[in-house]
Amino acid sequence: MPKMSFIKSAVKMKDFPVSPLKEVALAGRSNAGKSSLINVWAGGKVAKVSQSPGKTRLLNFFSMGDSYIIVDMPGYGYASRGGDELKTWRKMIEGYLTQRPQLAGLVLLMDMARDWTRDEELMAQFMMKNDLPVVIGLTKSDKFSKNDIKKAIERIKQQSRLEDVFAVSSQTKSGCAELEEFVYRAWIK
Ligand code: GDP
After folding, report:
1. Which SS3 state, helix, strand or coil, does residue 143 take?
2. CA 115 to the chain's CA centroid
3. What is the pLDDT of residues 93-132, one digit of tens each?
4. Which pTM value belongs to this model?
5. For the chain, which domains are there?
6. What is the CA(49)–ligand 1 centre distance, in A?
7. Which of 4, 46, 113, 165 has the lowest tally of Cβ within 10 angstroms?
8. Closest by Cα among 80, 87, 99, 72 to 13
9. What value of ipTM does the predicted structure carry?
10. Pocket-testing residue among 29, 30, 31, ligand 1, by greatest number of atoms within 8 A of Cβ
11. Residue to mutate, 31, 35, 36, ligand 1, most ligand atoms under 8 Å from C-beta
């Protein structure tokens, strides 16, 4: 796996890194386990685990060796809350996912215990606008038996109508390298 390292944080398009490399967006509801997975991929602590939900408004850019860039998006879960927070979040996420020419795909992280919701649907739809692919990573698989993992993958495939669903655990590192390898082979190479 290539070495993942932090490049910069940015809010506005004009501050995004200038690079010829493709980008892969990484998103998930707050508490899905996004920071933990980033830390596994980085082989050390580069992302804060368990920031208070809703705080992050930034896009964090990480390089994957010199082959591509991972863009860590703010944790979501505002669709049900509504109001200004939803507007701000939506504007930024939609802007990035629909107007970034080098964007190659989206990794959507979900706690394996949860169901597909309107929030995930919204993100997937932003990607569909430009025919860009989405892969789902079902997190915290260490909490489940092999059989329940299989069932969860099938359930989410049905709910999302997406084909590519992986089980990962940042605790045991199971599936983490495989998910990264999928992204690289399918979207970058
Ligand atoms: P984020 O909000 O999406 O960045 O999620 P975090 O990485 O901060 O994780 C949220 C919570 O889930 C923390 O308490 C983590 O310790 C826990 N967590 C994250 N990944 C795993 C995992 O693979 N297995 C288990 N059992 N817990 C996890």
Report:
1. helix
2. 16
3. 899 999 999 999 999 999 999 999 998 999 999 999 999 9
4. 0.94
5. 4-188 (3.40.50.300)
6. 7
7. 113
8. 99
9. 0.99
10. 31
11. 36
